Amino acid sequence: MIKNKYFYFQSALTPENCQKIIDLGVSEIERTKQLGLSTTGKTSDNRHKQAYDENAIPLNDKTHQQVIEESGAENLKHTYVRDSEIAWLSDQWLYDLIHTYVHRANVAAGWNFEWDCSEQFQFTTYKPGGFYGWHEDSGMCHFSKYKRIIPGITLKNEDGNYPQDYTYNKSKIGKVRKISLTINLNLPGEYEGGNLKFDFGPHNEAARYHECVEIRPQGSIVLFPSFINHCVTPVTKGTRYSLVLWSLGRPFK
């Protein structure tokens, strides 16, 4: 069992760098739209808002059991777990800026996970009502590793895209997400709600759930093992901007 379930750096990035990232991300979202491509934040099982009709129920930060108790088991299939807009960023200066925090946290938290590459950065916007329900970024074993796309053999989803755990990127094949990183880019007071929330499991009893308010100051960074269950609670006012990164390595032994 890991001792430190998350590790954070408060106000690590300057306001100037935060605004630079916001401008870059918003610009990339608009560019993607102009190309006629989707900017919807999706899930591996297509349980995002845009995949449902207007009568679908947002799961928010509720568990499946809570929905069953409140509305009945039949309503589970009418719930969605994500409502956000995203852009993918791969500017080298971002890796140069952020990777140092991955290295520092990995050692300081005592994880010492073996990792050797990172995915693209995900810039995410959450408008009022936006959220991301309970999920893990990766499992710990071989079942969670990225697999190679083989054209003509690898089956596509109903939306015409390959499953999210398949890739053309050779550096990702055979690896799993090990360290997840989130940066709060907003100034205090620019949004309400939208808290990163952890579920440390039933064995933690009273300390099972934790809202990570430590990263509310602008430029704050939080890192945690990718197998920890977490969510982003609904934004109730304003727009929340965040930057997410996953660092990869061979499956845990």
Description:
- It is a single chain.
- This protein is of the alpha+beta class.
- It has a single domain, classed as Jelly Rolls (Sandwich).
- Helices cover 18% and strands 29% of the residues.
- The protein has three helices and 18 strands.
- It has helices at 15-34, 64-71, 92-108; strands at residues 7-9, 57-58, 79-80, 82-83, 85-89, 117-118, 121-126, 131-135, 147-148, 166-167, 176-184, 191-193, 196-199, 209-211, 221-225, 229-232, 235-238, 240-249.
- Strands 1, 5, 6, 7, 11, 15 and 18 form a seven-stranded antiparallel beta sheet that branches. The chain has a five-stranded antiparallel beta sheet with strand order 4-8-16-13-14, with no helix packed on it. It has a two-stranded parallel sheet with strand order 2-3.
- Strand 2 (57-58), helix 2 (64-71) and strand 3 (79-80) form a beta-alpha-beta unit.
- The mean pLDDT is 92.
Average pLDDT score: 92
Q: Structural class of the helices, strands and pairings?
A: alpha+beta
Give the domain tally. Answer: 1
Encode the helix/strand succession as letters: EHEHEEEHEEEEEEEEEEEEE
Rg on CA atoms, Å: 18 Å
Instruction: Give the number of DSSP strands.
Output: 18
Count every helix, treating DSSP H or I runs of 4 or more residues as helices. Answer: 3
Please, what is the CATH homologous superfamily?
q2cbj1_9rhob like domain
Give the helices and strands, then pairings.
Blueprint lengths: L6 E3 L5 H20 L22 E2 L5 H8 L7 E2 L1 E2 L1 E5 L2 H17 L8 E2 L2 E6 L4 E5 L11 E2 L17 E2 L8 E9 L6 E3 L2 E4 L9 E3 L9 E5 L3 E4 L2 E4 L1 E10 L4
List keywords for this structure.
18 strands, globular, 5-stranded antiparallel sheet, 7-stranded antiparallel sheet, alpha+beta, Jelly Rolls
